[in-house]
């Protein structure tokens, strides 16, 4: 019997090591794996490279890892927001590295990583500071920039329902960066609201297949005593 369910988020993140590359799903607070992030804050792994669309939208997002001195480098498309002051201060004193990637390019870099494509050319960021120092080529009379794929040691994602094999269904806008990040990590950990038996999910609604999900945590027990974004 395939068993991917973990008792709690603490056990699910216990083996994340210093220096790991972590993909964090969500778009602002929607689809944000808040409980997994909180567990990693408690676990304390350091020198992380974190890949996320944004860092400053909510206090229990990637900003929590940054303020806890756990992040060495952040790769994102949107580093501004109400919690960006801490990031700016760390950039100025050299304690954190920031790599900005246009949103569509970021999504494609992660998708490419999951598909085994090492790099691709895109016209986005050509003739801008974001394209400086990167290989370029002309295609159809337009300059393109070579972008490297992104893969992670771990991915944190948020789903709505899962079966015990790890097939996932998302609730509306939870389907942002979560499905693509699930494919691009060695170990994908999903927090979900409900875990059901195999066969109970409509196959037409499954957006992330079980082959990409390695660990599951149901949030019912995790929610007690915590007020976190759970969209």
TrEMBL record:
Record's keyword annotation contains Transferase: yes
Pfam families: CoA_trans
Recorded coiled-coil stretches: none
SMART domains referenced in this protein's UniProt entry, alphabetically: CoA_trans
Keywords: Transferase
Domain of life (superkingdom): Bacteria
Family the UniProt entry places it in: Belongs to the 3-oxoacid CoA-transferase subunit A family.
PANTHER family noted in UniProt: ACETATE COA-TRANSFERASE SUBUNIT ALPHA, KETOACID-COENZYME A TRANSFERASE
This protein's name: 3-oxoacid CoA-transferase subunit A
Organism lineage: Bacteria, Bacillati, Bacillota, Bacilli, Bacillales
